[in-house]
Amino acid sequence: MFEGFTEKRVALAEAEIFCRLGGSGPPLLLLHGYPQTHVCWHRVAPRLMRQFSLVIPDLRGYGASRGPRPDPEHRGQSKRAMAKDMAELMSALGHERFLLAGHDRGARVGFRLALDHAARVERFAALDIIPTLDVWETMDADKALASYHWLFLAVPAPLPETLIAADPDFYIRHLLDRWVGRPDALHPLAVDAYLRQFHDAAVVAATCEDYRAGASIDRREDGADRARRQDRLPGAGALGQALSLAARRFAAGRLAPLGGRCARGGARLRPFHRRGSARGLRRCARVILRGIASLVPLRAQRGEGRDPVARKSHGEGEVCPTAAPAHPPSTPTSPGSPRQARGRHPLRPLAVQAGGEGLFKASGDGYRR
Predict the structure, then answer these.
(1) Block means of pLDDT (10 residues each) for the chain, length 369 residues?
(2) Distance from the Cα of residue 305 to its chain's centroid
């Protein structure tokens, strides 16, 4: 795994972050989810390193990274604190501006990083999430049962820590079996890395704190941002609107099925995986290599206005939110052309897309991590 990559430990203000570095090209930061580590990117990293300078860290408290001890307000594992780590990490590595992709909890860190440090994020790809606040607001009995770990891990210490520590392998394998559907699709070395970290009491405590923060401080901070409507973060405004729109439509059961296309030529919805499917990583790799399907330009650093989010319904059960169509000067569109008539921007490789507008594609699944 990770042939051609180097390992590095970086001491930050409040954490020590372990990361792998490799490749050449524009810097791309990849953030993992729960109960994973940076190893979750092992299948796509060798291909991405052909085009990008990859930075693949363990989030604070996960894997080989370490953060502060738990605190009563759970600020130590808040997405704001974890996003600050990533901003400091990229600065320490000499990357003042960078591309960003996050899966699961890493996408929530990326969401906060894009909001708090918009001038530094060129593009953001959010894989497999809707905003934390929307998760809690749309929670009902069925969703609570499907995503019970959100509530279980948020229970005050030391209850979840004690139960997980009694048999960490059983609990993590239980989660992977629920989410993957076909356990043999996961590389044994990757699974070993996920299991091994939960034999460390500090990792168990930090990951529980991650979910406690999601149920408290993260939820409050997301709510404060929503109330402000991101007026002072023009580029991130489109991101917040699009993700919130996706959340509401997912809750209403109105997102198109896997691979579905909106009626009247709307952009193709490409969920990265669905419940019971073991093809998520492969699909994720294809989408990322096509330019990372969930791209939102963060233009605050250029002083431009907020990206409007078109909200178009294209038939019952198939709704597709997209960013406003735009065409960089290098790719003019003639009046009346099919591309202009469809009102959407074509997908191009991320390295090319960096100078132009982006397209946000929403997706949802039957559970949330």
Answers:
(1) 97 98 98 98 97 98 98 98 98 98 97 96 94 95 96 98 98 93 87 98 98 98 85 48 51 39 32 40 48 40 37 31 35 40 34 28 34
(2) 24
Using CA atoms, how far apart are residues 233 and 296, in angstroms rounded to an integer? 13
CA 97/CA 118 separation, integer angstroms: 10
Sign, CA torsion 39/170/276/212: negative
Among 149, 14, 156, 160, CA closest to 76: 14
pTM of the complete model beyond 0.90: no
Under a CB-based contact definition with an 8 Å cutoff, are residues 145 and 325 in contact?
Answer: no
Distance CA 25, CA 60 (A): 26
Give dist(CA 207, CA 140) in Å, integer: 24
User: What type of residue sits at position 74?
Assistant: H
**CA–CA gap between residue 295 and residue 218 (Å, rounded):** 23
